[in-house]
Write a structure and sequence with these properties.
- The protein is α/β, with parallel strands linked by helices.
- Helices cover about 35% and strands about 25% of the residues.
- The chain contains eight helices and seven strands.
- A seven-stranded mixed β-sheet has the order 3-2-1-4-5-7-6.
- α3 (about 35-40) links the parallel β1 (about 25-30) and β2 (about 50-55).
- The model has no long low-confidence stretch (mean pLDDT about 95).
Amino acid sequence: MAIRDELLAAVLELGNPQLRGAGDILDVGCGTGWLLRALADAGVAPARLHGVDAQESRVQAAREALPGATIEVGDARRLAFDESSCELVTMMTLLSSLPSREGIRAALAEGRRILAPGGLLLVYEPRVPNPFNRNTLLLRNADLEAAGITPHSQISLTVLPPLARRLRLGRRSHYARLAKLPPLRTHRLVSHRGG
């Protein structure tokens, strides 16, 4: 929970202007919709919220959890959204689960394509290899460049998850202390502003 709380706080801070606006918000790879639910709890109207995930079971769970939002089965590499149609686009640990570097770049390019002028793309991905999952592809700066993404900001987040779980750091004060140590942060949140 502490990991999600930390990530949500960063999303709310960076995306504040877009969240207060009236445009569409899309979570690509939304899973069961935890981020969309959190945004609704923060006051974003469900009618503005959209989600896409490749797995039907996750889409169904997200729909049930967030009535009023539009959540569909879809492919991050070919989004069924018009160009410049979304104020905020999020991709949370989506890219590292794609099967190829070409897929990562295609998904990033799609996120950029549908981003409205002045909108915000937020990408949260591991910044260090996962020794327990050798199939995870790390997002490289070359992937961002190839997709035409120029980072507006990059912040490191997330205390090494196995450490956080092992020490049972559910209490925010313990997690917050460890999160102050840069070598323990395993992920990064990259933001890109639409032109």
